[in-house]
Amino acid sequence: MGLIDTHVHLNFEAFASDLDDVAAAWRDAGVIHLVHSCVEPSEFGAIRAIADRYPEISFAVGLHPLDMDKWTLQTAADIQRLATSDDRVVAIGEMGLDYYKADDKAIQAEAFEAQLDVAASLDLPVIIHCRDAAQDLANIVRRFQRDRGYSVRGVMHCWSGTPEETQVFLDLGFYVSFSGIVTFKNAHAVKASARLVPCDRLLVETDCPFLTPEPRRKERRNQPANVAHVAAYLADLRGEPMSVLAQQTTENACRLFRLSDRLKAMPLKPVAMNAG
User: Fold this and answer.
1) Where would I find the H helices in the chain?
2) How much is the mean pLDDT over the chain?
3) Which residue of 7, 65, 149, 156 sits 20 to 30 Å from the alpha carbon of 130, by its own alpha carbon?
4) What CA–CA distance (Å, rounded) separates 62 from 56?
5) Which of 153, 101, 106 is nearest to 131 (CA)?
6) Which candidate, 164, 256, 153, places its Cα nearest to that of 204?
7) Burial of 146 (0-12, 13-18, 19+ CB in 10 A)
8) CA 227 to chain centre
9) Coarse DSSP helix, strand, coil percentages of the chain, rounded to the nearest 5 percent
10) In what order do the strands lie in the sheet with 202-204?
């Protein structure tokens, strides 16, 4: 069973010169599918062009909470239009709240709720970015689900929250995805959260080109092949065989993003068991 990297940013400048080599590396590492996230709708054309080159890529469209200067009355409609323009769109995002670097909380909440509405109208999952905002984000989701009568599906991506915060989002029905952060020496709360997540809600990602995991930490640029190191670390942390964790996280990604039909026509290359 291969791995699915559920969060990449291959359109960033860091990959401009050697993306074919990067793709060869992820294939050699047993990565069979990737979900390409979106920071702002203007990236959509570039992301779609990358997916045209590599058939194992699905993608999302949304607006990141640190890009509220690009939020207008038209943005939600633009996201909905783009999401329906290509059947490789499997999610809305990344979206959410980030209180670490920004103080525009009201606008972030407005954009987040509007994108939840788009996702609900299209019955698509959401890719959520949440930093220093767990309580407010959970409250918005609860209110949205109550008012709309719709259970939001999605993933808390690149999760770095406490076990208590993790349980809140598990109770709301979310999947939880771990990146290279879980391999960092002092990421004690993240490790505790990773042990807590049930096997049927666990996902893996790189969030490349950021957050290179151990033992590749000295490499400036992260890449999808390194999701095998994240998975190997998680398997060891949770006391599970790598093969079992790879199969479970792939099944989870297929279920959340409805990827099963896309993968049926593609050969599955086993992930290297010595990835860690």
Assistant:
1) 19-28, 44-53, 75-83, 105-122, 134-148, 163-171, 188-196, 227-238, 242-257, 260-264
2) 95
3) 149
4) 20
5) 101
6) 256
7) exposed
8) 12
9) 50, 15, 35
10) 3-8, 31-36, 57-61, 89-98, 126-131, 154-156, 175-178, 202-204
